Amino acid sequence: MIEHDVLDAGLGDADDDDFDVPEAFDSELPDDRYLDRELSWLAFNQRVLELAEDPSLPALERANFLAIFASNLDEFFMVRVAGLKRRILTGLAVPTNVGRAPQEVLADISSAAHALQLRHADAWTTLVRPELAAKGIEILSYDDLADDERTALYDYFQAQVFPVLMPLAVDPAHPFPYISGLSLNLAIRIRNARTGRQEFARLKVPPMLPRFVEVGRDGERVRYLPLEDLIAHNLDDLFPGMEILDHHAFRLTRNEDMTIEEDETENLIQALEAELLRRRFGPPIRLEVTEDMDDLTLELLLSELDITAQEVYRLPGPLDLRGLFDLSRLDRPDLRYKPHLPTTAVAFQPGDNNERADIFTAIRKADVLVHHPYESFATSVQAFLEQAAKDPHVLAIKQTLYRTSGDSPIVQALIDAAEAGKQVLALVEVKARFDEAANIVWARKLEKAGVHVVYGLVGLKTHCKLAHVIREEDGVLRSYSHVGTGNYNPKTSRIYEDFGLFTANDQVGRDLTRLFNELSGYAIEKKFKRLLVAPLHLRKGLLRLIDRERRNALAGKPARIRIKVNSMVDEQIIDALYRASQAGVPVEIWVRGICSLKPGVPGMSENITVRSILGRYLEHSRIFSFAHDGDPQVYIGSADMMHRNLDRRVEALVRVTAEQHLKELSDLFDLAMNDATSSWWLGPEGEWTRHSRSEDGKALVDLQDRTMTNVQRRRRARAVR
Q1: Model confidence pLDDT, tens digit, residues 345-372
Q2: Where do the catalytic residues lie (predicted)?
Q3: pLDDT tens-digit readout, 284-303
Q4: What is the extent of the structural domain holding 495?
Q5: 433 annotated to bind ligand
Q6: Residue from 67, 65, 100, 66 nearest 84 by CA
Q7: What is the DSSP letter of 144?
Q8: CA 405 to CA 383: how far, in whole Å?
Q9: What is the CATH classification number for the domain harbouring 409?
């Protein structure tokens, strides 16, 4: 069959004589053809900041985007900047696709990050904070308080705050204390009233207390004081008999990049637990201080923390605007996006008697494509696994778990299945960054319940999103498969945009059977029919598909490439797209975050368009679509176009074949790339320009709002039938 011939060719099983995978650096393409990946990431976070600056968005959503920006930047420093510094210090090669010296790259990062952090602070001070105040949510300074409010707050301080504070002196008997990463601290200079000697103390702002202390409430109007302000103005209680000379907030970011030599350890879990402990004491990489910090205090911090002036960020307070996440608890729906209620996918909707849908029957009828969060995770993926756990005809369940929530019904379904006597295999990726400790806990809980838990392959992260159910039907074993683009996490499924394909296709079932066997064994099988699998053959398969579009364009046949990813960095993929563009192939890239590709460069990429869309939901799905001379080859899956995804992770893409699903994906792309849709456009020099309003000032179409409308329309159409 043509389908299998094409797919096999994509996996390297066909004759290679007619196609050679090109080298990453091709003499026909200019040397400066890539954008710097780190600066591109900072440009992504700038787009997040632009949402916070947008006066058309609801006030609490703007505050939330400020918090997201801060959280994103923390991770960028803890991982990306930390990784670059570690490689420089240890003499390892520093990966860079722009041919610049590592120190130059760090200097550019520092310059861009400084500018962004100042812009972020200004957005809070001059834009979002005043708007919140106008809407009845005031974040005050201590000077704004009335006397009776100060009295009430002092009582709160004495009862709830003072008992948990731990001032740490710095003197010959007390060495400079350890400063934990991302903690908010006060640097305090005091004078001993008896000796006249000046001393220094550090006070950590307790992270377990509310960051914003409620001052008063009158209906919907509420007033808050930052916790550090409350502490700072009651320091006399902490240092009786001392004169408080000065106090300033500061915050330290540490290197939390993890490195484990898996081939040199006998027990991955033990090695990982040791590395988690070490990560707490990673070297400092960024010091944030309030702009009014005196030179004496700053010099002490620089000396004791062994940090350079370039790594200091002077900012107007308050520091650590992640605290704005706390405002999400406020019951002010008028200051948020209008709610989107996920619908149940048409195939999984209850029957005429309002009985719960039989998931297996629905999948047997036809493949089901679900689009989260527009379509419910609970009534699709979760229901699929819960029904499998209870169904007496289900013999086995196999699943990958990369990130999941602490009270996950997915984990509970696997436990229930194991306790019911089914064969259950859970491939838990314990190396999922910043979820390592939680994943270890859940892996052990699964093991205690009788689940067969494996941790993947040495040297690779298992990032693919797969669930496979084996069910006995009339004496025959049938496979039910789910391949997704996002994690099996009910909480993030409400804010992450993702696709998932349910199918009873025998070929997909055989592919997943082989893949799970290899994941729990020793090697990755390369001969799949409906899957493209990394690390061995996914890049090569995509390069073949891209090159086929190039050849079709040269032959005058229909050709087009559409790719939706979180990141576009891999040089070989980018070069292949450049060559396709040179041959006349229209290439549309929809990227959320990093993009090292330069679009619109004459003679190289004038046929390439790059757009980015950010909004209430995190665009997270990956789609790869190729016109293929009228026989579309379209894949969804877990892989971004990055070295780590293509070389150091187990990733899987599945081919989507149903005509209605191909149309749904095509329509979504049409909407995203339409000039009438609000988006950011990437220029050839790496500049992103926001297009949110038409020439006459009208708001452009919001893709996520329109998608929800389209999903609801499909449901209503089904109800009418």
Answers
A1: 999 998 777 678 899 999 999 999 999 9
A2: 463
A3: 999 999 999 999 999 999 99
A4: 346-526
A5: yes
A6: 100
A7: G
A8: 16
A9: 3.30.870.10
Model confidence over 597-617: pLDDT tens digits? 999 999 999 999 999 999 999
Whether residue 221 sits in one domain with residue 145: yes
Domain match, 272 and 400 both: no
Q: Report how far apart, in Å, the C-alpha atoms of 412 and of each of 69, 247, 662 are.
A: 33, 49, 34
Nearest residue to 4 (alpha-carbon basis) of 633, 534, 713: 633
Q: Is 455 annotated as a binding residue?
A: no
| 340 in catalytic set | no
> Are 486 and 512 in a shared domain?
yes
Check whether 403 is labelled as a binding-site residue.
yes
Of 500, 526, 552, the position where a domain reaches its end is 526
The residue type at 87: R
Question: Residue 439: which of 375, 392, 488 has the closest Cα?
Answer: 488
Domain boundary among 468, 503, 526: 526
Do 552 and 559 touch, CB atoms closer than 8 A?
yes
Q: Which of 233, 248, 463, 482 is catalytic?
A: 463
Residue 97 is assigned to a structural domain of this protein = no
Q: Does the annotation flag 579 for ligand binding?
A: no
Answer whether 157's CB lies under 8 Å from 231's CB: yes
Q: Provide the greatest CA pair distance for the chain.
A: 92
pTM of the model: 0.90
Each as own residue / partner, the long-range contacts of residues 346-351 (CB below 8 Å, 24 or more positions apart, any chain) are 346/714, 346/715, 346/718, 348/379, 348/380, 348/383, 349/715, 349/718
pLDDT tens track for 101-139: 777 888 899 999 999 999 999 999 999 999 999 999 999
Yes or no: say if 181 and 207 are a contact pair by the CB < 8 Å rule. Answer: no
- Environment class of residue 647 by beta-carbon count within 10 Å: exposed (0-12), middle (13-18) or buried (19+)? middle
Same domain? 559 vs 702: yes
Asked if residue 59 is part of any domain, the answer here is no
The strand pair at 198-204 and 284-290 is best described as unpaired
83 falls within a domain: no
On whether residue 75 sits in a domain, the answer given is no
Q: Are residues 606 and 522 in the same domain?
A: no
Positive or negative torsion for Cα 628, 630, 634, 640: positive
Count of the separate structural domains present in the chain: 3
Q: Indicate if 389 and 500 belong to the same structural domain.
A: yes
Q: Is 537 annotated as a binding residue?
A: no
* Stretch (H or E) spanning 574: helix 571-582
Can you tell me the distance from the alpha carbon of 615 to that of 518, in angstroms, rounded to the nearest whole number? 39
Q: Is 224 annotated as a binding residue?
A: no
